[in-house]
Amino acid sequence: MPTYPFWQVDAFTRKALGGNPAAVVFDADDLTDDQMLAIAVEMNLSETAYVMRSAVANFKVRFFTTFAEIPLAGHPTIATFHALAEAGRITGEGRVRVTQELKVGVLPVELDLWDGQPQRVIMTQKAPEFLRRYEPEAWVAALGIETDDLLPGYPIQTVSTGTPQAMIPVRSLDVLHRLQPDERALKVLHAEGDWFSLHVFTPQALESEHAAHARHYAPGDNVFEDPVTGSATGGMSCYLYHYGLVQRRAFTVEQGHFMNRPGLVDVELDGTPGAIAAVRIAGSAVTVITGELHL
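Request: output the structure for the sequence above.
Response:
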């Protein structure tokens, strides 16, 4: 019976049972797509990552939700490389750089290692694409809010740094707290849209030094609300900078607090508001489960 090392890691947190959990399966080269999807269903988390050998990078990584493979994922990347370092598969001291082969190409990952242990993982995403804009009426109805709750002067728009996410800016933390999403209505919008999931955010934050607070919904996924979403944080951060909601290129954002899984994501941007060249997201992680899959 084949066995595969498996870890479950909470990403974007320094405390177990905070942030966003992801499953990480090592040595997954001989697993079929159907097996990877079935394992993701078994794990019943928003994403499961599979680590394989690569001819063009240090590691090849594939990401599966409980419904399908996705090309890029944020918190599973943080979880995967935290696990690889804790398992001794990435070694060094200080800032260590490796690469991962993804569906969207080869991207770098950096780790801060102290005494060989991972303290923080930094993920580079693709330069942003600003895609389709949407009229607000159907969106506010689907989210259970009013048009006046939206942040005035800023569009609902799909942004992709590897995975397309619909960005919905709202006025305040109070609006975020009052969201009552209608899953059926959001599925209709999803079927008609160009996005994978949606990110609702405000430039208000619980801590004054932070730049924004967000909630994330995936109407096409088994996990409807996601605690802390790295891929969407990259797109949101580009949106904030592109439209002048933040003027600095390095900042921290909040997510997960309304689900009692608080998380923080550090962001760094390269370029100017009209020409963002790259976005990096970073965070800590905590391993909560290690074991073996028996297939």
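Residues 129-282 form a domain with the Diaminopimelate Epimerase; Chain A, domain 1 fold (CATH 3.10.310.10).
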